[in-house]
Each structure stands twice: as C-alpha cells, then as structure tokens.
Queue: 3 jobs
Job 1
Amino acid sequence: MPGFQTRAIHAGEIDPVLGAVTLPTFSSATYESGGETRYDDVRYIRLNNTPNHRVLHAKLAELEGAEAALVTGSGMSAITTALLSVLKAGDHLLAQRMLYGGTHSFVTRDLERWGIEHDLIDADDPDSWKAKLRPNTRAVYVESLTNPLVTIGALDQVAPFAREHGLVSLIDSTFATPVNFRPIEHGFDLVLHSATKYLNGHGDIVAGAVIGATERVDAITHDLNHLGGSLNPQACALLHRGLRTLGLRMRQHDANGLALARFLEEHPAVERVHYPGLESHPDHARAKAWFSGCGGVLSFELRGGVEVADQVLKHVRLPAVAPSLGSVESLITRPATTSHSGIDPELRRALGVPDELIRVACGVEDAEDLVADFEQAIAKAAGG
C-alpha cells in the first residue's frame, strides 16, 4: 500500500476535468438527472454529492482505512447527526466524562429533549463501564485525545466492550487525525472529526466528517440530508487542499507540541503540563503503543493562578489568543473562557479544568521560536 502522504494526495481523485490538475470547485446547486431512484442519490448540493463532496468522501475513507465517509457543515454537525442517527427516543448513551465542551453540553443537556438518556463513564476504568449499562443502552462515545487535558483513555477496550454488549462505538478523533491514530483499525464503528482543525489545517473553513462502514455512513447521510448540515463546495475545495498536506503538517505539529511540552515541564514557574508525549505523563505508555504522535495541543498550569495565566496570554507574540486548533499558526486560550465556558464552573473544576489552565495549539512555526516566545512571555508574567 502507498504511504500516507502519497494517499493523501492521490486517493479518491477523479480524472482531470478539462485537463485541470487541481479539481475545480463545482458551484452548481443542481445537476442533470442521471436516472437516480433514491432520494439520497439525487445530485443536489444539499445532499452532499457534488464532485467536490465525492472526492473528499473517497479520500477520507482511504486515509482512515474505512469503507465510506461523509463531510458535514461543522464538527458539531458530524457529532450531533451521528448520535441522533444511532440513537432514538428511549435509548441510552454511555459517554466519556471528559469531553469537548460543545459535545458535553449536547450529551448532558440537549439529548434529553429527544428522550435520550445518558451516563458518563471514566474512560480510564473499563471495569466500571458494565455497571452503567442499561437494557436500552445503544452506543458508547469517547475521544481519542481529550480536550483540553490531552488524556488517552483505555481505547483498546472500547470496541471490544461495545461488540460484547451490542453497542455502536463512536470516537471523536479530531486531535489525533488519521496520521497519528486510526480508530477503525482498533475496531471502532464510527470516527468523527472536526475537519475545521487539522484536516483542513489553515483556519479558513468550518467542516466535519463521519467515517465508517458503508451501511452506517449511508444511514447518517440520510439523516444529514434532512437536517441540512451540508458542506458547501467552496469549503469542500479548501478541505481537499488541506488534506493533501496533512501528513507533512502533522509531523511539525507533533514535533512542536513535544518540544514546547518538554520546555514547560522543566520551567520552574510551571506547575503541571498535560501532554501524553512526555515520558512523565500517566498516559505515555498508551500514546507510545497506539499513536504515531500526540499532535500539537497541550495544556499547562502556572504557579500564580489566573492573573499570571492572563499575563502569559498578553505577552506571547507568536500565538494568537483565540480558540480552535490545527491551523498553521499557533493559538492560545484559557478553556474556561472558550471551549468549556458553557460548563458549570464547579463541574469544570471537578473535571480537571481549572480557570488558570492554558491550552496551546502549536502551529507549524519553527519549534525553537515557539519555545523562545513562551520563555519570554512567562518571564514577563512571573515578573509582574
């Protein structure tokens, strides 16, 4: 099989259109009928089946080692549509306790509006999962690398547990990408991505992806087509462009994340660093066994609390103070004010996300420049 980067460039591509080496953007909302008999096959922009969509679907499936893929209008659209496709009123979901803030709110607040129950599980303790099962449990949901503490749960136990109990296993693998971890190879049924992040890699679109077996992806496609969470062809073209350099970019994200984490771990002003690429991290053995790299996201806590943390955000020069991750430029934020601001403060702290926690999404700048920038920012913050 060709290597990852070769497949990122060539997988799913169609014959050149009028000789164009780069796939054109097909902006047409409607297409001539080709004799389609199913609603979902009618060629129409909202049904996510323009040539730009189809190439992305084939490429993403190939990169994840799956049968099929679907792109959506956002990462949350991928997550919510997938969950609503595998669950119905009266069903029960098991979900990892530490989740991205938007997902956590959807699971713990919104699902009940559809009559769907849930329990949160400790992803580190698979022996405790069975006790949370109910006769109506239908799915289990986890993340490959959690946001913002970058932990790795007992991922090798999720798919076997799901198969044993007749559950659908879903995993948000945004932070890992198929470069570093391919959940299908570990038995997961559905892989979800916020393609806004690493898959696109340039911070200029919002998109999502659902990847898995054809039958499951077809069912989610049908639901998405009714819910209307389509990805416009212009965004498809930008995502297509980003995917073709994914392997190259992830090498630098991985290297920068590890270099900055090692620097921070040794800094006397830093209380704690969260990055599983560090040998000292409790999940390092899992990272080494299952992952090719740990990505560019890390978080850390400084001595001195929120005031010092805000001073660091004020004095860094390279990272933009902004949410999101996975772009070529570095970003920095306090999750308590962005990704996890919708979670009750007491619960947020119980989850291990204190107000002073800083999350860094390393871009692809030179590692030594990032380290130097944080060195000067922390010095200024610690000095007043």
Job 2
Amino acid sequence: MTGVTLLELLIAIAVLGVLAAIAIPSYQGNLQSSRRTDGITALLEVQAQQTQWRANNVTYADDLAADLGWANSNSPEGYYTISLSNVTASTYTATAAPKVGSSQEGDSCGNLVLTQSGPDISTDQKKSCWKK
C-alpha cells in the first residue's frame, strides 16, 4: 500500500509555509517598487510643465489645476497625490505622497520629492527610490 503519511504531509506544508513567508513580502515589495513609477512619472510631468510655464511667465506655476491644467491632484494611475509647495519666481517643490488607504501607503520610500533642481536624492534611501 502506498500513500502519504501524516508526517510527510506536515513536512510538505511546513516547506510551503516557509516559501510563502519569503515570497509574499518580496512580491509586495516588487509591486510597491513598480507602482512608485506612477509617482515619479507624475513628478516628471510636473517638472516639464513647470519648465514650460516658467519660459512663458516670470515665476513657476503654483496651482496644478488652474495653471498646469491638472483635472485633479492624482498621479496617472492614482497611487499618489501630487502637490506643489514653496513656489517662488525661481523655486518650487513638487511632492508625490502615497494615497491614504492605497497599497502604496506602507511604501518605505514615503513621499517622493522633486524641486526645480531635480529629485531629492540626498540619502542612499532616496537615491534607491529614484533608482539613482
């Protein structure tokens, strides 16, 4: 008579549990990393629009909707909320904040920041978030 013993079954389940414990967090991290591209894409779009706005005006735009034509403050795929701050004639800060309640909320990178000088890559963590 052939079959699977209870001990063999328990060992197989334990092995599957260990593999799942390793694979699932890694998979979620990869998903967050790929969704981070949504925020970066939105910030680069803001940067291009700010450059164009500044070429035609004496200051940077301070309103995404009124000046730059954004219908809302969401990134293209909706994982981030985009905002402008510290806007002067020669500076601006654009921030992509993970949307509350979205799968990006727990992302280790948190807010992505871009200024008129480029992305905030002041730490190794921020460099890896921007893939620099």
Job 3
Amino acid sequence: MKVKRLHIIFIVYWFLLAYIIVALAFWFIELNNQNHLMTQFKLDLLKKDNPEYNETQQYLLAIEKKKTAQYLGEGGTFLLLILAGAVFVFRAVRRQFKQTHQQQNFMMAITHELKTPIAVTKLNLETLQKRKLDESQQQRLIQNTLQEANRLNALCNNMLLASQMEAGGYRITKEEVNIGELAKDCVHDFVIRFPQRTITAIAEDELYIIGDKLLLQMGINNLIENAIKYSPKDSPVFVTAQKESNFIKVSVKDEGKGIAEEEKTKVFDKFYRVSNKEAKGTGLGLYLTKKIAQQHHAHIFVTDNMPAGSNFIIEFKDNC
C-alpha cells in the first residue's frame, strides 16, 4: 500500500513539474511578445523627420534586447532551480523506493532467519524429550541445537550492534589485541560449529593492534560466516593474518561463485545481498564489518580469489 501511494505521488509530481516548465516557457514567450509589441508601438509613434529618430530607435531596440535578456536570465534561473529540485526529489523518491524494497526483503529474511533456528531447536528438544536415543544421536542433536542457538545469538548481536552504531550509542573500548590469536579463536569456534567444513587459520605471531576485541571478533566472525554461506559445503575456507609493510591484514578466502565487479562495493551496503537467491542472510553482516573496520581506522575490501571465490581483506594500520 505504501509503495502504491509513493507511485501515485511520483506520477503527480512529474505531471506538476511538466506543467510548471510549460507555464514557464509560455510566460517567457508572452512577455517577450509583449516586449516586442511595445517596442514596435513606440517606434511607430516616432516621426522619421525627427533629428533624434535614429538615436531613439537604437535606444528602444536596445531596451527591447535588454528586457529579452532579462526574461531569459530570470526564466533560465527559475528553470535551473526547478530542474535541480526535480533531480533532488527524483533521487529522494528513488532512494525511498530502494529503502522500502530493502526493508521488505530484510523483514522477510529476518523472519526466516529467526524462525529457522527456533523451529530446529524446538524439534530437537522435543525429539530428546519423547524418544530414547543412544549417546551418539543425543550428542548430534545437542550439537545441532547449539549450532542453531549460536546462529540466533549472532543474528541478534548483529541487529543490536547495528542499531547502537547508527544511534551513536556504542563506544568502543581500546585495548591491545593480538589479531592473529583472535582470528585463530574465531576459526576454532566455527570448526566446532561446522565440523563438516574445512576451515583453516594461518596467522603470524605478535600481530597486535589497538581496538575493541568484541567488535573485532564479531567482524571476523561475520566474514567467516559469509564465506561459509556463499561457498559449497565441500570447499575449504582459509583465514590468514599477516603483516605486510606497515599494515596488518586479515583475509578470509572462500571458493564460491565469487562476486561480480559491479557488486564488490555494494555488498557492504546495509541490507544489500548479492544476486544469489539460494543463500540465506539479512544483509547486515558485511555492513557491520565495514562499520567495525571504520571504527578501527581500517580499510575493508573484496577481491577475487583464484581460481574461484572471493577474498575479503581488512587492512589495519600497524599502530603497536
């Protein structure tokens, strides 16, 4: 209903804009014609035997040209202002359409993302309650339940953090963090959560930066989860942390389909999801990771992983 109302407003606006431009053109033509007629009327009143005839004629024609230039200047200024306003409104409305569409997609995605772990957890607990299972089956169900609980927890953390950051309510803590050890810890957690996946960490020792450990952990987790989500189940994920020149780089590589060139900057926009309908997600993970990188004066970007996949890199300044 809201989108339909915006469409109607959009159509009415462009109709009124066209009407204003036509009225402006009509105003210029009428004023210019009136100016020309008045000049001709004054010229007709002049007597040709008057010794000042030529001077008066030139003066009247100059006045006519001056007024024509005045009308052109005023009309051109109004036209530029109208067009500038039209472009501003067009961009604002288009942005509103885009945000509305993204929010609708986000609500559908978040509903699915919330319901799935809740449903799986409920089913697993009911199975444990109603059936007598052997030890291995119980452990498998418990592991699956914990995995879904962790997924739900990560989703809630992302939503809360995004809200706090946008409201300016989150203040980062500054401490010395070994980013290499932190990357290994993150990989270890994912290996436990996804025992069927091959996730490898290669990190140099003594890679210290100043930052918020909780935020940095969340940022790396989002990159690893993104790599797992957008790559085949039998493909590996590589996490590296190393020092290059005056920078410390954390890299997360996958062997998925990769990201199109035109989408490599868009993937960090809020609610944006690449054109892969099979993968789940809310479009918050990479957006938050970019925000976290900016909070730490770091640069995040994505390149192609050879021969296939994506390589997300966070580049920190070596400030320790």
